[in-house]
Design brief:
It is a single chain. The protein has about 290 residues and is of the alpha/beta class. About 35% of the residues lie in helices and about 10% in strands. The chain has ten helices and six strands; from the N terminus they run ααααββααβαβαββαα. It has helices at about 5-20, 40, 65-70, 90-100, 135-140, 145-155, 185-200, 210-215, 245-250, 255-270, and strands at about 120, 125-130, 165-170, 205-210, 230-235, 235-240. It has a six-stranded mixed sheet with strand order 1-3-2-4-6-5, with helices on both faces. The radius of gyration is 21 Å and the shape is globular. The chain starts with 6 loop residues before the first helix and ends in a 20-residue tail after the last helix. Mean pLDDT is about 80; it is low at about 30-80 and about 280-288.
Length: about 290
């Protein structure tokens, strides 16, 4: 007979699941990240069946993109749940309504305006940053400060306008003093980002900086390990590059970012005008 879990733990699960239901996620892999349940399963330790040696299974060959993901270590505790399927009929307005006047994590305390995202809801290209800064918090729009101006130049150098792409962040409220969002904040807010990406269904996702990349790829590895490589994110092409704020501090890295953006342009069928470079805003290739 199955052992009943303690009431306090059951209540914990119940409230956690109802939170995820609130934000529109109803299906979960219960044992997808077993190591993350360690602290919980300690409290309900059940006798384990004796382990038998298993013969090695033949595995189907993986695509190069999937293989790259496969070698990235999963970060313990980045996200407990991953939605299994796209939520039928989901849309950006519905996600925004579900967020509402959000107080789900402590970042709400310091925000002026929640920064949901901006751009084309049917964009082929989505840029994902880390979180709003001071200017974004004041205006309620993503990437409108100095780093945002550089991102706009980069987008224009690709032959696009901001209105052609969609721009959003992992967390929707400004972390105090622009600090890096904490694990619990990312964990609480990132399901909304996953829903945004599913609703937009872009061809390419570009992660700006390590927080966005580590969140979507569920890895602890530094961005330098996979920057500029095509990776798979739930069947979509994902590429991570440096955050524009990093480029403001390290202008020498602009060339690397421009090479990354050229890879994105190739996939989207955009043309490079000779002499273009990230931050120069000189190219006017074909728009999507
Ligand atoms: S960061 Fe996200 S989860 Fe936290 S309060 Fe803002 S919208 Fe809610």
């Amino acid at each position: 007979m199955a052992e009943r879990i303690p009431a306090a733990l059951e209540e914990k699960f119940r409230s956690r699941l109802s939170f995820y239901q609130d934000i529109g996620i109803e299906l979960f892999y219960r044992d997808r990240f077993p190591q993350q349940y360690a602290s919980v399963t300690e409290e309900i330790t059940l006798p384990k069946p004796a382990q038998k040696a298993q013969p090695a299974k033949a595995t189907a060959p993986m695509s190069p993109a999937a293989r790259k993901l496969d070698v990235l270590p999963v970060s313990p505790g980045v996200s407990l749940f991953e939605p299994m399927n796209k939520i039928a009929g989901d849309s950006l307005p519905k996600i925004l309504a579900d967020i509402g006047d959000c107080t789900r994590c402590k970042l709400h305390r310091g925000r002026t305006k929640l920064v949901f995202g901006d751009g084309n809801p049917k964009a082929e290209l989505v840029f994902v940053g880390e979180g709003p800064g001071r200017d974004e918090d004041a205006q309620g729009l993503p990437f409108v400060g100095r780093a945002g101006k550089l991102l706009t130049q980069m987008i224009e150098a690709m032959g696009l306008q901001r209105k052609d792409v969609y721009i959003c962040n992992v967390v929707k409220c400004r972390p105090p003093e622009n600090r890096t969002p904490e694990k619990d904040e990312v964990e609480t807010c990132s399901p909304f980002l996953l829903r945004q990406l599913d609703a937009i269904a872009p061809k390419v996702i570009v992660c700006l900086g390590s927080v966005a990349a580590q969140t979507l790829l569920q890895t602890n590895r530094g961005i330098s390990h996979f920057r500029g490589e095509w990776l798979d994110f739930r069947g979509r092409k994902l590429l991570a590059t440096y955050h524009p704020a990093y480029l403001l501090r390290n202008p020498g890295a602009k060339g690397e970012v421009w090479k990354d953006l050229q890879k994105v342009m190739a996939v989207l069928g955009l043309q490079v005008k000779k002499g273009s470079s990230a931050g120069a805003g000189q190219s006017t290739g074909k728009s999507s």
